[in-house]
Amino acid sequence: MESFSTLIRTASREQHEEVRGSTFMSDLLGHKLGVDAFARYTEQLWFVYGALESGAERLAADPVAGPFVRPELFRMSSLEQDLEYLRGPDWRSVISALPATREYARWISECARVWPAGYVAHHYTRYLGDLSGGQIIRDTAERTWGFPKKGDGVRFYVFEQIPNPAAFKRSYWELLDAVPGDELERQRIVAECKRAYALNNAVFQALGEEFPLSA
User: Fold this and answer.
1) I need a labelling partner for 127 at 20 to 30 A (CA). Which of 101, 172, 185, 203 fits?
2) 87: closest CA among 152, 165, 136?
C-alpha cells in the first residue's frame, strides 16, 4: 500500500508545478525582475511564516501537529534579518501584506486553531518546499544581486541547524506516515495540501501583477 507521505507528494505534484511555473517566479528566476521584487516577496513570507510559527507555539503539545514543531525549521528570525538588510532598519513600518497574503496567513491561523492535521499540511508545503526548491531562489538571488553567499538578504533559505537536508526530509516523511487518522482524514489532509499550493500561487499571481516584467 502506498505510504501517506508518497500519497501527499504525488497528489500535490501538479499544484507544485503550477507554483514553480508562475509568471512571477519564472521572471524572478529568469533574471527579469529587480531586487525590489525579491524584497517584496520576502515581505510576504514574513506574514505567512508569522502565522505558521505562532501556530507552532500553540500546537507544540498537540499529538498530531506537535511532532512537526521543530525549532531548527523556524524562519522568522532569519526573515527579519533579511528584511532589515533589504528594507532598512525601519522595515516594520514600510512592509505590507498583499490581500492574497493576508488570506493565506488567515487560513493557516484558522487551521492551527481548529484542525491541527490541516496545519500539518501547510507546514509540509512551506518548510519542505523552502528546504528544497528554495535553494534555487537563494542561488539566483546571490548571483543576480550579489548578496553574500548564505548571508544577509537570503538567510531565510539557509537552514543552519539542518546539516543534512536529505536525512531531515526522510525523517519528516516518516512523521507524515505516522499521522493518526482514517482514510477520510488523510484525504482531507491531501486536499489541504492542494489548498496550500493554491493559496501560495495566489500570492505569486498578485506579485506578478505588481511586477509585470520590471527590470
Assistant:
1) 185
2) 152
- Known binding residues for heme b are 9, 16, 124
Identify whether the C-beta of residue 153 lies closer than 8 Å to the C-beta of residue 99. Answer: no
DSSP assignment of 112-180 equals HHH-HHHHHHHHIIIIIHHHHTHHHHHHHHHHHH-PPTTSTT-GGG--TT-S-HHHHHHHHHHHHHT--
Nearest alpha carbon to residue 140 among 16, 51, 29: 29
Q: Which grid coordinates belong to 84?
A: 532589515
Per-residue pLDDT tens for 141-181? Answer: 999 999 999 999 999 999 999 999 999 999 999 999 999 98
Among the listed residues 55, 12, 2, 39, the one whose alpha carbon sits nearest the alpha carbon of residue 214: 39
Question: How far apart are the C-alpha atoms of 117 and 154, rounded to whole Å?
Answer: 30
CA distance 32 to 92: 27
Residue type, 174: E
Q: What does the pLDDT look like over 75-104, one tens digit per residue? A: 999 999 999 999 999 999 999 999 999 999
Compute CA 145 distance to the chain's CA centroid, rounded to the nearest angstrom.
22
CB-CB contact of 41 with 207 (8 Å): yes
Which of 132, 115, 109 shows the shortest CA–CA distance to 52?
A: 109
Determine how many CB atoms are found less than 10 A away from the CB of residue 17: 11
